[in-house]
């Protein structure tokens, strides 16, 4: 016997019944995106490695430690499984000239890949949903995306999610802050841990996001980027705040919020919760006006966010908000395999009328006893059983039996009724509206 094969660690199958929750969340997201005028974009899972090196920054954790990169054996091209999708969206917008007739509101969903230690809500293959607004420079679109996310939490019924915002200003302002930050940290180098010392000259902003308890007082007293912002950056940030205030959206200014990618400027934001342990960020994003130029295109403003779908589902589970599993409207009980050829067209007609109906499937030794079929009908969760018995079919009918009441916890009506086989359209609605 061959050795048993298993999925790669941190890359998980999503099987029923969990897959139904994913479908429900995806449908909710698509519906909300349509309301806001966002349209779907689908990009390849594999992209040129250079896209992420140039887009995210060579000294980011993602590029240095987490990417799945390899060489194409046919042509030697360096390729990477996408660790995020904003860079891919911008690459696609440039490649297909999506902004030739004005700004675009786009969304995506799909798997991303990062080589890190699997933990709750964080896997090597994980799934992101993202919304990106390309070609819009004003803070109104920044606010729109934040409001959109808040509407999503309301649609899902989620509570306990808090909004943090900050401004990273423009590159010259960040450079001035960077120099002040390096000077400050060098003066306290004896208090820096090994990771902070490594980042001191390559990416000092990320030191502000340290989780090391012994460094919290040090980073809290560090020079603040907000103090280096010019008038235009402050105006953009204050206008964003005014729009959030007008919507009644609560937020906290977090001067240590810097995000992990080099492409961000001006507005950055995160939605966080305390209900998922250390993995508290459920949605994050910001403005990335320089990314188009970084990957070889003409400058264009852009802003967006991404959320981890595993984390949202974990939070929904934590708050008991996941929907009940879908069940068929009816279950077809077929006592005799010889009747299957006559039964299947009736069931097909029901499905064409919008009825979700599941047919009992027999084995090599026949269809099984009526008792066993009714057990499976009840286990399916269906409200009704359709009984295709010999006597009923000779009369041109099918017997309808209620397995449970209008609500699942209500008793079923013990009576059976006969329905005409040649009049499916006249009684299909009865099954759909149960």
From TrEMBL:
<dbReference type="InterPro" id="IPR004154">
    <property type="entry name" value="Anticodon-bd"/>
</dbReference>
<comment type="similarity">
    <text>Belongs to the class-II aminoacyl-tRNA synthetase family.</text>
</comment>
<dbReference type="InterPro" id="IPR045864">
    <property type="entry name" value="aa-tRNA-synth_II/BPL/LPL"/>
</dbReference>
<protein>
    <recommendedName>
        <fullName>Histidine--tRNA ligase</fullName>
        <ecNumber>6.1.1.21</ecNumber>
    </recommendedName>
</protein>
<comment type="subunit">
    <text>Homodimer.</text>
</comment>
<keyword id="KW-0547">Nucleotide-binding</keyword>
<dbReference type="InterPro" id="IPR015807">
    <property type="entry name" value="His-tRNA-ligase"/>
</dbReference>
<dbReference type="InterPro" id="IPR006195">
    <property type="entry name" value="aa-tRNA-synth_II"/>
</dbReference>
<dbReference type="InterPro" id="IPR036621">
    <property type="entry name" value="Anticodon-bd_dom_sf"/>
</dbReference>
<keyword id="KW-0436">Ligase</keyword>
<dbReference type="Pfam" id="PF13393">
    <property type="entry name" value="tRNA-synt_His"/>
</dbReference>
<keyword id="KW-0067">ATP-binding</keyword>
<dbReference type="InterPro" id="IPR041715">
    <property type="entry name" value="HisRS-like_core"/>
</dbReference>
<dbReference type="Pfam" id="PF03129">
    <property type="entry name" value="HGTP_anticodon"/>
</dbReference>
<feature type="domain" description="Aminoacyl-transfer RNA synthetases class-II family profile">
    <location>
        <begin position="25"/>
        <end position="335"/>
    </location>
</feature>
<keyword id="KW-0648">Protein biosynthesis</keyword>
<keyword id="KW-0963">Cytoplasm</keyword>
<dbReference type="GO" id="GO:0004821">
    <property type="term" value="F:histidine-tRNA ligase activity"/>
</dbReference>
<keyword id="KW-0030">Aminoacyl-tRNA synthetase</keyword>
<dbReference type="InterPro" id="IPR004516">
    <property type="entry name" value="HisRS/HisZ"/>
</dbReference>
